From TrEMBL:
<keyword id="KW-0411">Iron-sulfur</keyword>
<protein>
    <recommendedName>
        <fullName>Ferredoxin</fullName>
    </recommendedName>
</protein>
<dbReference type="InterPro" id="IPR017896">
    <property type="entry name" value="4Fe4S_Fe-S-bd"/>
</dbReference>
<dbReference type="Pfam" id="PF04015">
    <property type="entry name" value="DUF362"/>
</dbReference>
<dbReference type="InterPro" id="IPR007160">
    <property type="entry name" value="DUF362"/>
</dbReference>
<dbReference type="GO" id="GO:0046872">
    <property type="term" value="F:metal ion binding"/>
</dbReference>
<dbReference type="Pfam" id="PF12838">
    <property type="entry name" value="Fer4_7"/>
</dbReference>
<feature type="domain" description="4Fe-4S ferredoxin-type">
    <location>
        <begin position="345"/>
        <end position="373"/>
    </location>
</feature>
<comment type="function">
    <text>Ferredoxins are iron-sulfur proteins that transfer electrons in a wide variety of metabolic reactions.</text>
</comment>
<dbReference type="GO" id="GO:0051539">
    <property type="term" value="F:4 iron, 4 sulfur cluster binding"/>
</dbReference>
<dbReference type="InterPro" id="IPR050157">
    <property type="entry name" value="PSI_iron-sulfur_center"/>
</dbReference>
<keyword id="KW-0479">Metal-binding</keyword>
<dbReference type="InterPro" id="IPR017900">
    <property type="entry name" value="4Fe4S_Fe_S_CS"/>
</dbReference>
<keyword id="KW-0408">Iron</keyword>
<keyword id="KW-0004">4Fe-4S</keyword>
<feature type="domain" description="4Fe-4S ferredoxin-type">
    <location>
        <begin position="315"/>
        <end position="344"/>
    </location>
</feature>
Length: 378
């Protein structure tokens, strides 16, 4: 086992700063955070700020959680920079707007620098299975350590977004579609995400699950109260704990499946070492899964029929044309360039659509749905 398998899961019912900080302080103590965060280190905090969104929409890491983490890192003697590359152009103006709208700008009051350096460099990934180098934003490359501070959400392509998937935000905005093009299928894309996580090697991973996102995440779902904060020195172990909370099979979370295949974490949450409470204490039995969840019957079909059945059963993005404002964010994010704007409305050419759901994720008006053929609905 290459990574520690200790996970902290603690109750936290509301985004009250003193309560959140107290919970995280105990978790940092139990995880011996001082072993990986030492005085004088430059630490990059990587939140999930996927798009312009307010905290109450549950698409981004709540600013109270970010501020509490920053405060604890400063207490350990580190200098802290907030580093994120949302979807879309990686520019200072976009970053400023997202910092403000998400509430993350408050982290400055606790001693963090808000990164506005929009350069990037190459990160080698010698342990990779598929992708041996990545373009990664400069503040993460220059950091002595990375602390992953993510949001627990469903994800229409990867199943779940938590610690491991959050690190895809280290790739500069408009370079993300290039990786979708290189790895259009779910399993290799998940493997690539795990390659990236291994290369970045976050020393601590904190999951904001006070309020999570259910349904068609990572941006189009609904807030769901869970009342928990999680932390671990292993992003893979904390993700495994998260699957138990939202009732998702770990094998259906593609980056986690790849991590288990590499022996980076156990295959079942029961094998984790719980330093506070077990994740099962916070399980939400009716947590709404994404519409894109694969149809289970496909693996029982003859192999020669599986590709066709997969294509038919895989949900497609559908634009609610009457509500579309023609902003072009979906076209900008589409790795296959299958979306055009005609008469101020977005139109999808399904011929080359790879069902990556980037358009659904980046639509600021949330007017792109994920739908499968009625034959495969249940």
């Amino acid at each position: 086992m290459r990574e520690p398998v200790e996970v902290c899961v603690s109750a936290c019912e509301a985004y009250e700063y003193e309560k959140v900080r107290a919970v995280l302080e105990e978790q940092f103590y139990l995880l011996k955070a001082e072993e990986v965060i030492r005085p004088g280190m430059r630490v990059a905090v990587k939140p999930n700020l996927v798009t312009r969104s307010t905290p109450d929409e549950s698409a981004v890491t709540h600013p109270v959680v970010i501020c509490a983490v920053v405060s604890l890192l400063k207490e350990l003697g580190a200098s802290v920079v907030i580093a994120e590359s949302p979807g879309g152009p990686y520019t200072p103006s976009l970053l400023k707007g997202i910092y403000e709208q998400s509430g993350c700008a408050q982290a400055e009051q606790y001693g963090a620098e808000l990164n506005l350096d929009c350069t990037w460099g190459e990160l080698k990934a010698p342990k990779a299975r598929l992708c041996r180098s990545f373009s990664v934003i400069t503040p993460l490359l220059q950091a002595d350590a990375i602390v992953d501070v993510c949001k627990l959400k469903t994800h229409c392509m990867m199943g779940m977004s938590a610690a491991v998937k959050n690190l895809f935000g280290s790739v500069p905005g408009l370079m993300k579609p290039e990786l979708h093009c290189r790895f259009p299928e779910k399993e290799p894309f998940g493997t690539m995400i795990t390659d990236l996580c291994q290369a970045l090697h976050p020393v601590l991973s904190v999951v904001d699950a006070v309020t999570a996102m259910e349904g068609n995440g990572p941006t189009g779902g609904q807030p769901r109260h869970v009342g928990a904060l999680l932390a671990s020195r292993s992003p893979y172990a904390v993700d495994l704990a998260c699957t138990q909370i939202i009732g998702m099979d770990p094998e259906s979370v593609y980056p986690l499946r790849s991590a288990m295949e590499r022996d980076l974490c156990p295959r079942t949450a029961e094998e984790l070492v719980w330093l506070c409470e077990p994740a099962s204490r916070f399980a939400v039995p009716d947590f709404l899964q994404p519409e894109s969840k694969s149809a289970d019957f496909i693996t029982r079909l003859p192999k020669f029929l599986q590709p066709l059945a997969t294509r038919l059963a895989t949900p497609s993005p559908k634009i609610r044309t009457a509500e579309c404002v023609g902003c072009g964010k979906c076209a900008e994010s589409c790795p296959q360039h299958t979306i055009t704007i005609r008469d101020r409305k977005a139109v999808i050419d399904y011929t080359n659509c790879i069902r990556c759901y980037c358009c659904h994720e980046m639509c600021p008006k949330h007017v792109i749905d994920i739908r499968r053929l009625s034959l495969f609905r249940h």
